[in-house]
Design goal:
The chain has nine helices and no strands. By secondary structure, it is mainly alpha-helical. It has two domains: 1-63, Orthogonal Bundle (Arc Repressor Mutant, subunit A), CATH 1.10.10; 72-216. Helix 4 (66-87) crosses helix 6. The longest helix is centred in the first third of the chain and has 40 residues, at 3-42. The N and C termini lie far apart (75 Å).
Length: 218
């Protein structure tokens, strides 16, 4: 094939890829709005097709169904939660310094603020609009996973500092996790503005760290 024909062929392939990405993006954009307005259960594939201008049969080329679309929309948040869970019991946190260090407190405040600020829409979808989807139970699964991480953290902390209180109940750790997830839900549900959110998160982190310090008798 002459080099000029190869160039034209590559350009056509590139244009086709761009068009596919644009169509997939349009489907996701419309679906996001529909899920936010109606919730997963009341959103229909037909409605997504009508509002996106993409034929229903064509949507199924890109996504196998509503659940596939919904997961694609919240996947960045799921990835972030998985990263946070992996880092939860990092050895750098197994120090009494976490109760006193302003640097650590500022870091935790920033992490929580960025989580809500960067994934506000995904949090709304996952925590408020997932009923009827394959991710309907994800909130409870996340609570269970964080509860286990919390129990492991307390155990590891007590191995390093055996003089501290090691009798914190599983039920307390579970409910502390429920509270944390509920706080994320409340912040996105009430569409808190930046300054208000920063103030609240600062209050929460300071209260949370001081409370754990008191419980563990640091």
């Amino acid at each position: 094939m002459p080099s000029s024909n190869i160039v034209r062929y590559c350009v056509r392939l590139s244009d086709m890829q761009i068009k596919k990405e644009e169509i997939a993006g349009r489907i996701l954009e419309v679906s996001r709005t529909e899920f936010l307005m109606k919730g997963f259960q009341k959103t229909s594939m037909r409605g997504i097709a009508d509002k996106s201008g993409v034929a229903l049969s064509s949507i199924y080329i890109y996504y196998s169904g509503k659940d596939h679309i919904f997961k694609a929309l919240v996947q960045p948040l799921l990835n972030e939660f998985n990263t946070m869970l992996r880092e939860h019991n990092n050895s750098k946190y197994l120090s009494k310094d976490v109760f006193y260090s302003e640097k650590y407190h500022t870091q935790r405040i920033g992490e929580l603020f960025n989580l809500v600020e960067n994934y506000r829409t995904e949090l709304k979808l996952l925590l408020l609009n997932a009923q009827g989807s394959e991710l309907a139970d994800y909130r409870e699964e996340l609570i269970d996973r964080y509860t286990e991480k919390g129990i492991e953290f307390v155990s590891a902390f007590n191995e390093r500092y055996p003089e501290l209180n090691n009798s914190i109940s599983r039920f307390f750790i579970h409910n502390a996790t429920v509270w944390w997830i509920s706080i994320l839900q409340e912040m996105v549900m009430h569409d808190m503005q930046e300054e208000e959110m920063k103030q609240f998160i600062t209050e929460y982190v300071n209260f949370f760290i001081a409370g754990w310090g008191k419980l563990m008798k640091v």
